């Protein structure tokens, strides 16, 4: 039975959540609606004092929460999932405003919250037992303490719960820092959580980069779970090293998709387009380099162009809209650089316009660059926007090497009718998650993390629970 609403959330006012209470600040920040470029509601910028109070509250709550039986923790998480489900429409509206997502895409993210929690509540913490004539050795796992989740702006809700749910399930307390670009849904999510969890168990402090730096340096924070750019991830790791914090870093990617010559072109090309342009390319595991076998290159590219032209770009509630705007002006300017560079170098635009200058909002038409050189910026770097290059290939060994020739390794795809052969190639790609005959779709049922500079460690799934725990080995010798 779903719980009745304890109170009606006000989706027009926003606060930091410290020690179970709403907290304002004299300094206010405004997010921007990326569809209109207009300011949204004011949100308080947490001070160092706010942060210290939150960590102190989390530290005080940890002994009791960590000793709460796991079944009770699961019960509360499931109660929270039920409560959240009563506000699906409100959270969807809010996500559309702060992120500019098409309503269908926002609904998918919001509806995934309850499912993510429910799946994790079906997991148990791993344990091992070894016994011989002399002793019994129990390998168990204990929670770390106070965790901090630093959330990016591209999926502010699902990536918040992706840190909160496993942290709480394993007996940790957590302080969440939403992105200043998309603070609203994250703050409201944690505000709602106060109706279910003891004070101090889950809190939220919003602010700027300085606040994130303070979290990484705080001596009472045991772990930083960070999702964001490679450059910032390196700074998080450097700062966390001062107190040897545990870190999980899920960073940028430059995912390759390899298209084998036996694919059903008309079926696969639109799927590859979807993988490249989902969320307007603002996905760490979006397809960012597309390698098409030379025997089908022209035909496949034309089918991609056709599918791309059919993608409507617009605001959340426009009929038939597939793609929203770039979420913030900083990223919009970065994406424009890839268009300008490709135009200046004379690369061929298979579809899309080389000049980006919308009248309002941060809209960019999805664009395909036809066969730029290997050393081009669009091949070497991650745009994090709706612009993607295609290249032909002829030799399988060479294209595998080309796909792996990057400092990143988050995701990759292989497409082919011969599934066994495609899977054989997939196992040679240096990435944390490789998808065969699908674009990149991370799932809570499996650990998610990257190779090389795409990150350290991973979270989600049964294996991912251990990222929030320390091994605790008990050696019992027989009398």
UniProtKB/TrEMBL annotation:
Query: Active-site positions, per UniProt?
Result: 250
Q: Which UniProt keywords apply?
A: Oxidoreductase
Q: Does the keyword tRNA-binding apply?
A: no
Does the keyword RNA-binding feature in the UniProt annotation?
Answer: no
Domain named Aldehyde dehydrogenase: which ranges? 29-472
Q: Which SUPFAM superfamilies has this protein been placed in?
A: ALDH-like (SSF53720)
Q: Name one GO molecular function term.
A: aldehyde dehydrogenase (NAD+) activity
EC numbers = 1.2.1.3
> What top-level branch of life does the organism fall under?
Eukaryota
Q: Which reaction is catalysed here?
A: an aldehyde + NAD(+) + H2O = a carboxylate + NADH + 2 H(+)
Q: Which Pfam families match?
A: Aldedh (PF00171)
Q: Which family does it belong to?
A: Belongs to the aldehyde dehydrogenase family.
Which named protein is this?
Answer: aldehyde dehydrogenase (NAD(+))
